[in-house]
Design brief:
The complex is a heterodimer of chains A (114) and B (116).
Chain A lengths: L4 E3 L2 E4 L5 E6 L6 E7 L5 E8 L2 E5 L7 E4 L6 E5 L8 E8 L8 E2 L3 E5 L1
Parallel strand pairs in A: 2-11
Antiparallel strand pairs in A: 1-3, 3-8, 4-5, 4-9, 5-6, 7-8, 9-10, 9-11
Chain B lengths: L3 E2 L4 E5 L4 E3 L2 E2 L6 E8 L6 E7 L7 E2 L2 E6 L4 E6 L8 E9 L7 E3 L3 E6 L1
Parallel strand pairs in B: 2-12
Antiparallel strand pairs in B: 1-4, 3-9, 5-6, 5-10, 7-8, 8-9, 10-11, 10-12
Classes of the chains: A mainly beta (114), B mainly beta (116).
């Protein structure tokens, strides 16, 4: 069964450093998403991406964040200058369509900022 | 106001019994979707069941069913015949404006423990 994959599974970085989290969505899916989950808290929407552009973003997704689909398969989330409060699990998700289609989540990348 | 409210931070159920996990939602949209996801201790998010706002029948998927009460804005998940592997966090989520919106709003989750 096709699945969303994410790399790395765990990333440790120092405050102020740039990180890139990588995702490979399910191949025939058209919509891509990033969510984050601070330890013990709920999952929060960051951004959605469709047709090579951001279609929706939350207030969390400020100028420090960017997303890119550099080729036909990868979908990346970049954090330019990490802060301690960026420590969280970051989930990538994809869906075949909008609306009623469920989003398939990847296993997540745990980001630890020290 | 919270879009999704899950008032049970933790629940316990005896193996083979049924359990109901509560979820209420807040939206002024007519067209929306409600989803339940399971998050085991390993961390991944697993889709369980979907209910559309216009669906007249309650959704069912195997041992999972969704008790959808539109007037009360509730979408409770019912797990029948609980198994030890059902122990996990369960998140209720909503997508508004099904024709245009992409964002999922998640609740704070309910931690379910199945007791042998």
């Amino acid at each position: 069964e096709p699945e969303v994959t994410q790399t790395p599974s765990h990333q440790v970085t120092q405050m102020g450093q740039e990180v890139i989290l990588r995702c490979v969505p399910i191949s025939n899916h058209l919509y891509f998403y990033w969510y984050r989950q601070i330890l013990g808290q709920k999952v929060e929407f960051l951004v959605s991406f469709y047709n090579n552009e951001i279609s929706e973003k939350s207030e969390i997704f400020d100028d420090q964040f960017s997303v890119e689909r550099p080729d036909g398969s990868n979908f990346t989330l970049k954090i330019r200058s990490t802060k301690l409060e960026d420590s969280a699990m970051y989930f990538c998700a994809s869906s075949e369509g909008a609306g009623t289609y469920e989003q398939y989540f990847g296993p997540g990348t745990r980001l630890t900022v020290t | 106001a919270q879009k999704i409210t899950q008032t049970q931070p933790g629940m316990f159920v005896q193996e083979k019994e049924a359990v109901t996990l509560d979820c209420t939602y807040d939206t002024s949209d007519q067209s929306y979707g409600l989803f339940w996801y399971k998050q085991p201790s390993s961390g991944e998010m697993i889709f369980l069941i979907y209910q559309g706002s216009y669906d007249e029948q309650n959704a069912t998927e195997g041992r999972y069913s969704l008790n959808f009460q539109k007037a009360r804005k509730s979408a409770n998940l019912v797990i029948s015949a609980s198994q030890l592997g059902d122990s996990a966090m369960y998140f209720c989520a909503m997508r508004e404006s099904l024709n245009t919106g992409n964002q999922f709003y998640f609740g704070t989750g309910t931690s379910l423990t199945v007791i042998p």
